[in-house]
Amino acid sequence: MVTPIKWEDSCIVILDQRRLPTKEIYLRCRTPKQVADAIKTMAIRGAPAIGVAAAMGFALAAELIKEKDLSKFLKRLDTFRRFFLNTRPTAVNLRWALDRMKGKIKGIEDIGQIKDILKKEAKKIYEEDVSTNKQIGINGERLLPKKARVLTYCNAGTLATSFYGTALGVIRAAIDKGKDIEVVACETRPLLQGARLTAWELKKDSIPVTLITDNAAGYFMKIKGVDLVIIGADRIALNGDTANKIGSYSLAILAKQHKVPFYIAAPISTFDFNIASGEEIPIEERKETEITTIGKKRIAPKGINVWNPAFDIIPYGYISGFITEKGIINPPFRKAIKKLKESIQ
Q1: CATH 3.40.50.10470: which residues of the chain?
Q2: Where along the chain do the CATH 1.20.120.420 domains lie?
Q3: Residue-wise pLDDT tens digits, 277-303
């Protein structure tokens, strides 16, 4: 498995996912702006991964600030925090990581100590993400029969996390248990994360995968059959409504029509306990060229109107359960998620 992000001395190394699957190129980010640009332009993507990237970028910012006055240092540091918060508004892991980093230095008055604490905490967030993903896999693999065909969407694998993956982590854990697993990956328009990333990642690990177009998913369920759908998430509301890559809502409807269990694999950090439902989740809208071009080739008329939301909301009623590092959360979700919130406070 590849490593999508790591800290090397005073440099954050990021696998440029925009160049996959044809080129495996790493960005060496030496400034917080370079890290933020990597997040914003989706050189690194996936809710857990951008949380880790933001934490590392925040620690890097602290390391580079030369200010000796504590109040001025903290003011500059908070400017960087807000800068990272504005890169991707939908995935809550980014805010969660930055809030955690900020909380760790509350009341600390020594600048050198603050820098050390932030660097250690960023690395800890990275390490915890790896262990969390593996635990999600362990908890979720029992949902898969000994021989199973699993459909997934976008990329919720190693490339979307620090290592191992969430949805693909469940698949990896099932294979490690000796189960016969076949994966069906939807291409995931408009940026083709399923075709470019999930198919590449699974093929690299010799995991059987069949690539289909997004609009073939329903017919595939009807003709060939699917045992489960497992996808990741970018934000989960208190009632269970879930934001994920645009097209996830349609896939959930198709799964319900064909009586296919539909699971979300995500860490606890993806739950936003401060919002009641999906109506409160901000949906990022991205530039029109993601739809009007593929690569650098234009595929739509110039001047055409374009709507390009990066995410949609899956209503909780379409979700069979949430696979987390704390176990599987089953309906009724509002009660179960509220209990989860109380257990970690």
Answers
A1: 135-344
A2: 5-131
A3: 999 999 999 999 999 999 889 999 999
Look over the chain and give the mean of its residue pLDDT values, rounded to a whole number. 96
Give the domain 135-344 fold: Rossmann fold (3.40.50)
Please tell me the predicted confidence (pLDDT) of residue 20: 96
- At 4, the amino acid letter reads P
Residue 1 pLDDT exceeds 80? no
69 is catalytic: no
Say if residues 253 and 262 touch (Cβ distance below 8 Å). Answer: no
pLDDT of 2: 82
pTM above threshold 0.85: yes
Catalytic residue among 129, 214, 234, 312: 234
pLDDT range class, residue 213, cuts 50, 70, 90: very high
- The domain covering 5-131 belongs, at the CATH homologous superfamily level, to translation initiation factor eif-2b, domain 1 (1.20.120.420)
CB atoms within 10 A of CB 309: 11
